[in-house]
Amino acid sequence: MKFPNFKDLILFEDNDFIVINKPPFLASLDERGGSGETNVLRLAKQYSDDAQVCHRLDKETSGALIIAKNPEGYRHVSMQFERRKVNKTYHAVVDGQVIFDQLMVDLPILNDGNKNVTIDRAEGKRAETIFDSLKYYKHYTLVECKPITGRMHQIRIHLATQRAAIVGDEMYKGKPVFLSSIKRGYKLTKGEEEQPIMKRFALHARHLVFKGLDDQDIVIDAPYPKDFATLIKLLDKFDA
């Protein structure tokens, strides 16, 4: 998989931090068992020797990711994450028309290891997400997701509990979006197999606010990557 030049991913940079718009299919850190594949941490270290990734996004998730350029910056942001002071907003496209108005989902998540998480009221760790519907289509909804905590797969599993799985998120029974399902009269050529509009689940870290070492807010907006933007454009055109 070919990734863009690291410099081209940068949304913000000062003496202490870099914030990138992480492309989909690029891991944040070395995967367990170290396959030696390219990831954000490796690219960042080539750009800035002491770079540390301050949090992680799932491999398929795109969007704003904070990288510290020095240990002081890393500690500063880690403390903000620990105290839940980092303001994170994600956008997701979900199955069906769902009306969320400041819906707070407060369901504990248990990480079984091996990238497997479940809702577990007895053993799980506290997990809270606030959801708001931004735009309704005939068959889908664009949803704003604000995780208060930062559990693995939190947004994905919390949406699934609301019968609003993220499109393309097979792990949580989300179905991919095909052009044939929204565009009337769409015909495939004979023998052609239709590909989904997005070849991953539709989740993007859109907005991020954290404090720099001078305690001033650093406000980040991460534009949609091409695949997410294309999905929205086609839904606007054929499913509005």
UniProtKB/TrEMBL annotation:
Pfam families given in the database record: PseudoU_synth_2 (PF00849)
InterPro entries in UniProt: PsdUridine_synth_cat_dom_sf (IPR020103), PsdUridine_synth_RluA-like_CS (IPR006224), PsdUridine_synth_RsuA/RluA (IPR006145), RluA_PseudoU_synthase (IPR050188)
BP-aspect Gene Ontology terms: enzyme-directed rRNA pseudouridine synthesis
TM helices/strands, residue ranges: none
Signal peptide start and end residues: none
Molecular functions (GO terms): catalytic activity, acting on RNA; pseudouridine synthase activity; RNA binding
Domain Pseudouridine synthase RsuA/RluA-like per the UniProt entry, residue ranges: 16-160
Domain of life: Bacteria
Family: Belongs to the pseudouridine synthase RluA family.
Protein name: 23S rRNA pseudouridine955/2504/2580 synthase
Origin species: Pedobacter suwonensis
